[in-house]
Amino acid sequence: MNRKQGRVATATAVALSVVLAGCGGGGDDADAKDKGPVTIEMWSWRENRVVDPIVKKFNATHDDIKLKFVKQADNTSAAANLRNAVAAGKGVPCLVQNWDAEAPSVAAEGLAADVTEYIEPYVEKGVFNESALASAQVNGKYYGIPSGAEPSFMIVNKAVYDKYGVAVPKTWDEVIAAGKELKKHGVYIMNMAGEDPSTLVGLVQQAGGTWYKINGDSWQVDFLSPESLKAADVVQRLVDNNLVANQTYMDKPALINYFDSGKMVSLMTQVWQLGSLEIDYKKSLGDWEPIDLPQFSDATRFATMAHGKPEFVPKGCAHLKEAVEAGIWKSTTKAGIDASYDSKTKSYPWPGTIADPSPWIDSAVPDKLFGPRKSEAKGVIQKAVEGGQDTWVVGPNYTGVFAELQDQWAKVAAKKITMREALEHMQEFTVDDLKSKNINVEG
């Protein structure tokens, strides 16, 4: 167990029931005696060229609050620096970029303040995309500023599909059927890297499932839920029928060359990848088509995975209300989103936090990747946004659990074990690991 996990486990074991009951932390804004504008220190490791225009625009349009950007070296440094500041009780910032952390763990560790009273008025006004809310919540309380996920969809090499007369799939059953046809021609329907179980994780989310839930002061673990098994069935059929390639993500040039070759023709993706794909693809540029994310055959509504990463307001921040106001301005107002434009990449960070990000869709779609089918992207992306759901909860030991899942996934990809056997192992491993950390667990 690494030091970070140890701190999370200890904090969770001692304080989980208190934290989840809604015990917040931070300064009382009503008691602030400072004269003049309140300064909100914001930590991020994004490049100055991206953050400085946001800070400049905010400060030019606000008299009572000012943003101060303090650049961090990277996400790991930001997390370590925050822990040190909170422990010392001084130098605590008021906004911190998410370092790939989850609200339950950060709240249990005592790093995040309960900002529910400041978030709820914005929720009531309908400021946020509904799917953005869950990731910032713990038992109905907000421990961060909601942040929406990028829309998930699929792109396919339409030229190869058409060459072999294969219909573009609309369901996961049709993906498997199309894969069997393409296999006859030496073409794989998808890629599943042996080190990356994100396909399984995404399918569980799309099915509306989660492996963790919170029940009072304990965690519930269920890797064998109906949703998880539904996702596992799709993966197992893809593996059993040899329909997927196993190109590693560790060698990006080789991976891109392979995708560009036409030997792998379907890719689950998000908006942020499109610009890079346009730059990287040479042979297949213009051959790709954006399509709706395939659905489970028994789905009652169109669904995409939409798990976001909240921006945290740390415990010890002296100005919670102002911090929330600044954070929400950055992610939900037109002025804030427009100020985030990156002149180098000629794009905006995806504004998935807001209810209607459609005005920014056109700028997210590159000119050449989809050739004559570029106009189709807007409808696909908008539908993905509207179908977004977030039922995913991440437990306090997920870092170690994910590493174990990677090991199990590699065995599934190599046909050494089945997906069901991997999930059975993960159930036992996760429960035992939580118990070893003295964390209350059911499962």
Q: What can be said about this structure in brief?
A:
The protein has helices at 3-20, 48-61, 75-88, 103-108, 116-124, 158-163, 172-183, 198-206, 226-240, 252-260, 271-280, 320-332, 334-339, 361-364, 376-386, 398-413, 419-436; strands spanning 38-44, 65-71, 95-96, 137-138, 141-142, 152-157, 190-191, 212-215, 218-221, 244-245, 266-270, 288-291, 304-305, 388-389, 441-442. It is an alpha/beta fold and 443 residues long.
Would you spell out the secondary-structure blueprint of this structure?
Blueprint: H1 3-20, E1 38-44, H2 48-61, E2 65-71, H3 75-88, E3 95-96, H4 103-108, H5 116-124, E4 137-138, E5 141-142, E6 152-157, H6 158-163, H7 172-183, E7 190-191, H8 198-206, E8 212-215, E9 218-221, H9 226-240, E10 244-245, H10 252-260, E11 266-270, H11 271-280, E12 288-291, E13 304-305, H12 320-332, H13 334-339, H14 361-364, H15 376-386, E14 388-389, H16 398-413, H17 419-436, E15 441-442
Parallel strand pairs: 1-2, 1-3, 7-10, 9-15, 13-14
Antiparallel strand pairs: 4-5, 6-11, 6-12, 8-9
